[in-house]
Amino acid sequence: ALAPRPALRPASPGPGSPPTPEDEGGYPEKGSPSLAWAPSADGSIWSLELQGSLIVVGRSSGRLEVWDAIEGTLRCSSEEVSSGITALVFLDKRIVAARLNGSLDFFSLETHAALSPLQFRGTPGRSSSPASPVYSSSDAVACRLTHTVPCAHQKPITALKAAAGRLVTGSQDHTLRVFRLEDSCCLFTLQGHSGAITAVYIDQTMVLASGGQDGAICLWDVLTGSRVSHMFAHRGDVTSLTCTTSCVISSGLDDLISIWDRSTGIKLYSIQQDLGCGASLGVISDNLLVTGGQGCVSFWDLNYGDLLQTVYLGKNSEAQPTRQILVLDNAAIVCNFGSELSLVYVPSVLEKLD
Question: Do the bridges between strand 74-77 and strand 85-91 make them parallel or antiparallel, or are there none, so unpaired?
Fold first, then answer.
């Protein structure tokens, strides 16, 4: 199931030239499959979201595209808007695009099913329906603009998250805004940071946390718009932010990962990271944290801050920083390690922590 699909691989630049953001989605090289990302005339890819078998792409040109992840084909795209798409939310059949000019576009994804053999595989009722929608390649997919909020922020939107019927934006204007997802109505403007917003977390329980260039973390009450706590977390930008039921986990440009008590805002402990690995972390369960290092990933007991195990991804002499970690549903993790992707299964000893 993990076999690479060449159709979705951005064409790589020629030998000797390091890839730059502008090169992503460049012209396909000789011999590459005809199903490839559109050429760079359409602009660099600034944001990506995946749901089921569909990928939504936001480009620097302002174009929104919906791609089929299985076929590698472009299913539909929006009209050009001159302002690039800095962040995306793809939730059920709703797509929200945040733009460099501070505006928000709300789209609905409409599918018109055509009769297809995919719909008649197996006996009826034999399997439960998949958790994520899988669209057959014969479905007609259309993207319809339903609302626009022209000046959601005065400056570019840098963070966008949605959960529990709420959409949260963070901007370079130092504020966050909370919108109702169904009608794009702005409920609150949240003020409490003295720098641009760099990270936002919101979940189904309406817990909202934000981090900024000021190194601070704020916790907010989404129902009232009031600030619950304010923590001076990092020297420099907060680079990522996540929560478990009992704690808040933050990372910063200072290569520290800090764990905070969610109810009191008190720091429990910090983990010093290798240079350049500070933002790579993932939560496997309420008790288990995975962090990246030079050529390795480490597993930690969140309750006590104990290092449980370190897994090395290659020869020590070729240690590369682990820059991104993605936790999969089956307790495996995928990490971006040098120029490779590594798949690591969580050691069974650790899973017993649950």
Answer: unpaired
Determine the longest span between alpha carbons in the chain, in angstroms. 59
Residue 56, burial from CB neighbour count under 10 angstroms (0-12, 13-18, 19+): buried
Q: Write out pLDDT tens, residues 263-305.
A: 888 888 888 877 766 677 888 888 888 888 888 888 988 888 8
What is the Cα–Cα distance from 161 to 202, expressed in whole angstroms? 7
Name the residue with higher pLDDT: 79 or 211.
Answer: 211
Contact 26, 11 (CB under 8 A): yes
Tell me if residue 252 falls in helix, strand or coil: strand
Helices (H), the chain: 348-351
**DSSP character string of 97-157:** EEETTS-EEEEEEEEEPPP-GGGG-S-TTSSPPPSS----TTSEEEEEEEEEETTS-SS-E
Strand partners, 176: 170, 190
The answer to whether the beta carbons of residues 231 and 189 sit under 8 Å apart is no
Contacts of 76 (CB under 8 A, 6+ apart): 65, 66, 141, 142, 143
Per the prediction, the chain carries an average pLDDT of 78
CA distance 61 to 177: 25
> φ and ψ at 117, to 5 degrees?
-60, -25
Check: CB of residue 138 under 8 Å from CB of residue 114: yes
Tens of pLDDT, residues 106-120? 999 988 765 444 444
Q: How far apart are CA 152 and CA 148, in angstroms?
A: 9
**Using an 8 Å Cβ cutoff, are 290 and 298 in contact?**
yes
The CA angle 147-153-156, to the nearest 5 degrees, is 105
Give the pLDDT score at 105.
93
| pTM given for the model | 0.72
